[in-house]
Design brief:
It is built from 5 helices and no strands. By secondary structure, it is an all-alpha fold. It has a domain of 56 residues. Helix 1 runs antiparallel to helix 3.
Length: 81
Amino acid sequence: MSTFAVSFSESEQKLYLHVHKKAKAQYMLLRNQGSQVVSQNLFKVMSSLLPLRRICSGGSLSNDDLSVVITTPISMLSGSG
């Protein structure tokens, strides 16, 4: 596995940090429900990383590409819904 340094312009850095903050918030909602909930929603967690990877790779992004939304209601994540 290789690691590559990525240099962002100021606007790219702002975009990355904005998308990262949203992805982390969505992850924390799952994490606060417990590790089993994270495991059950692993695809959603991994999907939330895709916009960040695309920003790093210089891919063109639409607003839909940048959205990080977990649509499962919190009540269903904990098994109480």
